[in-house]
Design goal:
The protein has 257 residues and is an all-alpha fold. The chain has 8 helices and no strands.
Amino acid sequence: TTQQQQQQKFNFIEWNNNILIGSLKKINFNIILIIVLDAFFYISSGYLVIFWLQRIQAKMATFQVPADIISLGYERAQQVVSDVKAFYYLIIFSFILLLIAIIFLASISKGIIWAKTTNTKISLALLSKFLGLNLIWMGFWFIIVIIISLFVEPVSAPLLMVITILLGLYLTNTLYTLFMKQQSFKSIIHAVKLSFMKIHLFLLPYTIILLLLFIIARLGNLLKFSYSAALLSLIIIAYIAVVRYYASALVGHIDKL
């Protein structure tokens, strides 16, 4: 029994190695475009968030609520309450627009990235469907993150947030690979089923991927010069681009089992 188990373990490792080698062979000059698009997405999203925060802070600086509203009289108090409501709705509406803008950017950049990675033909129909998919998928995860931020105790929130992000990334890798092949919203159900039913096949490869990412980040922190943060970010984006080739190939092979 021990011999059989060792043979099975060896076969699993060999099978994974073959997938890894096969995926690395598929890497070509498209990876440069992939890295550029990934960097563009993160930089653009960062600027959008900063712009939104600056505008909200500017509004807050000009918006003052009197300490004693009752002393203002009924009509003035009503006006202050209306202004507070309007400001509250402005924050919510602008935040929703921010999320939609990020999802739109993700759909264009990540759509091209995953199409290039999986060797899928890029078309307007594909990117349109990918946008629809992300409005559902990314919208769902944004809502989960907001719920955790608002309703979970501060002590438990960070751990739950990390678990949510890791779970979201894990499922997203499977979903995007399957969607590029099927180009159907049914791939959401397919991805969730495959990710949980075959989790034992994903666990070891993804654990190694995360460990390598952690090591790269730790080593990168040792760099101390003007643009070390930018260089580390570029290295991580390049690493993720390479991993994406392997992860998509892994999902494809596991889906066939």
